Amino acid sequence: MTVIRQDDLIDSVADALQFISYYHPVDFVQAVHKAWEMERNPAAKDAMAQILINSRMCAQGHRPICQDTGIVTVFLRIGMDVRWDAKLSVSDMVNEGVRRAYTHPDNVLRASILKDPAGARKNTGDNTPAVIHTELVPGDTVDVRVAAKGGGSENKSKLAMLNPSDSIVDWVVKTVPTMGAGWCPPGMLGIGVGGTAEKAAVLAKESLMDPIDIHELRERGPSNRVEELRLEIMDAVNRLGIGAQGLGGLTTVLDVKIKDYPTHAASLPVAMIPNCAATRHAHFTLDGSGPALQTPPDIGDWPDITWEVSDGVRRVNLDTITREEVAEWKPGDTLLLSGKMLTGRDAAHKKMQELIRGGEGLPDGVDLKDRFIYYVGPVDPVRDEVVGPAGPTTSTRMDKFTDFILEETGLLGMIGKAERGPTGIDAIRKHGAVYLMAVGGAAYLVSRAITGAKVLAFPELGMEAIYEFEVKDMPVSVAVDTQGVSVHKTGPEHWRGVIEEQALELI
User: What number of CA atoms fall less than 13 Å from residue 128's CA on the CB side?
Assistant: First the structure.
């Protein structure tokens, strides 16, 4: 009988979560690099270059790949011959590992978990509790798979109760475009088929723990219907032309993972959960010999890619920018921003709206007129950092505030991740504002452009407080111009046409 000590599980969970915060799985890095080599859309290729550069920087600097360091999901398979030398429950041991990982002084991770989700939504402060799935199995070891899932991709999860005669491929192809680009493609799609509604969702999440192997599958050929579905879905989704960051291009998904389970004769539950460009997961086994610690990969496994400033890039001074200058920008233009900007996410927008409507006005020092606001919740800084990793959050969450804020404050521009919805675009067009996009999945790279940071308002909101950032050559793209033209519409439309032409040429 194997004896597993309490500290061995705690230390192993903490080590795994620190490890995956700054090390991409090497198979993911290689898959993005291969997609980068094949990509023909310069905007999408540039986005993947930033993702790869950011990944290498994080691996070398041991800082988070993404500012959203995720909600922790853990799959435990506990052998029935295991005996525990522990005072805590298994769940409490896992959560103690999470707490230690997210408060590690050398690499503080962002605490994003809120208790009382339908009420006060108060941050737990240490990113606990994790979502834990436990299974008792024959054997004398404890098998543990750990993942940290960002909210942007998790929010794009889909579940459908299809009819048994319905096509899973057709449902996926119809559904993926409705997910927008907030899940930060290119990434993986995890699909669960069968069981019940909740079982399909768990299967989808569990499938994302597996390594990328679609190219090996394609070379050897499928041996069952699930493998056939993986290839059919991957090819069909990539033909949509959504591309990296939704900018249009040849690669939207790097792999499709499917797990299935027997289901009722009248049912066909299907769940789809995307993994983003900050794919983070690790696996270890406890056998009683002590903690199971992760082995660092070889930094030589990362491609040595540089990001070059092309001749067409505009340098923008945010401190002197005018509405006339902004009106000249076109969707897809690359800008390098320097100067001062404010930050604010959902909670800050809600508080600003309440203060203005209540007649109090904005807090002292918060003046949005003719300025830019960055939708970001940064990681706390360590050592000599001005700010921790500070990539953009999903911008559509701010759409319901956009018209009010633009009308009442004179805000000129917004910076975030992925597309804007119809409500946000209508407000941008109405007020002659602009929306810029930073690359999701390049948080550490973005933070290197931030030379100054101070909290201006709402410090009680933690990472959702309003900061003033000073930046130097922060790279962004024009996503929605002052006329309301969105690159997230024009880009995929164009590249879908290009892919269709290529397919016709091969017939």
Answer: 15
